[in-house]
Amino acid sequence: MLSGWACPDDLLPQFSQEDLRRLTIEPLTAHRQPSGEEALVNKPLIVYADAEHRTFRTDLFGFGIDVDVYPVEYTWDFGDGQTLTTVDPGSPYPSFDVAHTYSQELTATVTLTTAWEGKYRVDEDPDHEWRDIQGTAHTTTPFEPFDVIELRSTLVG
Q1: How many structural domains is the chain composed of?
Q2: Is residue 98 part of a domain?
């Protein structure tokens, strides 16, 4: 019978989903095209985010911890009752990978909710192994409101 033995991994702290959610994760910078105060009915509005990971230095129970978080899911709320969830952050024109077409005039506010996953490393780990954090954290990026307008042609002559 063994006594007084412990697996070295059991002596290291676990960085939990609650710990992840306590980090102050800066929301992603997001864009829409066309930018400005107006967009058009029946024309695609392109949206995309600068999908950059975030790093943190923290401690847990006196142990030094490095944390790396990265975006894994993007939920776009277009302010007209429609949402789009994707693992693609989108990209600027001429890409239409992540886009939305409004069907009527309104004042809209687009909101991006980003799901983050992460990994951590404990200073005292002799292997300096990166370990997955179980669960996700979320951030929200609101856009400025804009008007969706309809252009009408008029024949003159």
Answers
A1: 1
A2: yes
